[in-house]
Amino acid sequence: MGKRTNMTLVGFLQAQNCSNLPGSWRHPEAIPDFLTADHYVRIARTLEEGKFHLAFFDDRLAMPDIYGDDYRTAVKYGIRSVKMDLIPLLTAMGMATRHIGLGGTYSTTYYEPFHVARTFQTLDLMVGGRAAWNVVTSLNDSEALNMGAAGHLPHDMRYDRADEFIECVLGHWNSWEDDALEVDRRPGGIFADPDKVHRLNYEGKYFRSRGPFTVPRSPQGHPLVIQAGQSGRGKTFAARWGELIFASYKSLTSAQAQYRELKSAIAAAGRNPDHVHIAPPIYAVVGETRSIAKEKEAFLASLAQPEDALCLLGEILNFDFAGRDLDAPMTDADMRAMTGQQALRDRVAQAAGTPHPTTRDFIDLSKRGTLYEMPVFCGTASDVADEMEAWFQGEGCDGFVVAATHRPGSYEDFTRYVVPELQRRGVFHTEYRGTTLRENMGLPRPVAHGVPKRTI
Per-domain residue ranges for the chain? Predict the structure, then answer.
């Protein structure tokens, strides 16, 4: 196989007081204007200058308040305690840019398919075909309580509902044919051909939606679909629906094995694996010399506090670690009670070598809330590019989701130093291919193929 040249780069964003690193707001170079549009516009322009394919926002519908059943720790220490709606931010960023894709997270558990379809298709039109929707089933009871539910749904049921949800959304997106609009203002002319706009009439076990949909097709057809399922059921869902899949890998060896597995699952689902990009999240710490980069890394690692890990573990696992002996093994009942991200629970148990890991095992092995929760590529621009190229050429991924150690400087360093090095090596583009996200990622434009039929 020849040299690969189309590395995908995604900027990993949070609409909150910190980056993915919860202690990043303490960094002396972090600009504390995160409640303003200017903050996100500056980041979008920086990422577009670096020819990133996509700026993407992760999201939750609650602050991390499961630890001790109290929100005070999260608020006191700024542990992702601010979470704003993504659409106004994405719109502002889209108005300030011309090429970079703009992705956001909306839950299939707490929204309705028609609402999500209309919101993201409208965004896609407003930004000229550059929108993406990250499909999540949400994680915990705090989100359920905020959204009027008594508790979070069981894991596999969330994905069963999500299958129907996305069928319904895609059905709406495909119910206007590409040439339905005529806007013929001559006498007797018509606005749109009613034979090319179709009523959905979707009826499933969990969702019903009649239609017709109210938003025509965009320049890229409809928004790109992002997924990040990590459990067995989640991977099946991602293989069926995802066009860009975020996959968490700790090493190149594990990345290569799981990359092959996921690509095979995509093919087994009847889809072209080349039309699905897989990208793991990383931190990049760049310095003029390796010693400077290592000093930066040590300082960034020092920003984490113990409360960060415990609050964020509670959030992602839907389990309260407060008041527990750090070295007492979890019971079978404890492990079953961790109903959030089961893939994280299972990874910790596997790494600990026991089905009953301790709280300390969860803290130490998950690295939750610390710089080392994801791979850290640290060194000069050449060093960072070496690692990225090794993963990319070694078929461990199709690209990377670059998280910020602090905002906005981390994105600026990556764009200024690492991107030119990747371009010099011929593994990353020097110019955008087109005007839509799908064009820039080398993905085909979806055909409006009618509406799905489901039998309950």
Answer: 8-292+374-441, 305-368
Percent of the chain with pLDDT over 70: 98
C-alpha 389: how far from chain center: 22
What is the pTM assigned to this prediction?
0.95
User: Looking at the DSSP assignment, which residues form a beta bridge with residue 244?
Assistant: 226, 277
What are the backbone dihedrals phi and psi of residue 176, each rounded to the nearest 5 degrees, phi first? -100, 125
Q: Is 329 exposed, middle or buried (0-12, 13-18, 19+ CB in 10 A)?
A: middle
Q: How open is the CA angle 115-121-125, to the nearest 5 degrees?
A: 145
- What is the CATH code of the structural domain delimited by 8-292+374-441? 3.20.20.30
Q: Are 16 and 83 in contact (CB under 8 A)?
A: yes
The enclosing H or E element of 407 equals: none
Q: Which helix (H) or strand (E) holds 284?
A: strand 281-286
274-329 residue pLDDT tens: 999 999 999 999 999 999 999 999 999 999 999 999 999 999 999 999 999 999 99
CB atoms within 10 A of CB 248: 19
pLDDT digits (tens, 9 = 90+) for 134-165: 999 998 999 999 999 998 888 889 999 999 99
pLDDT reported for residue 448: 84
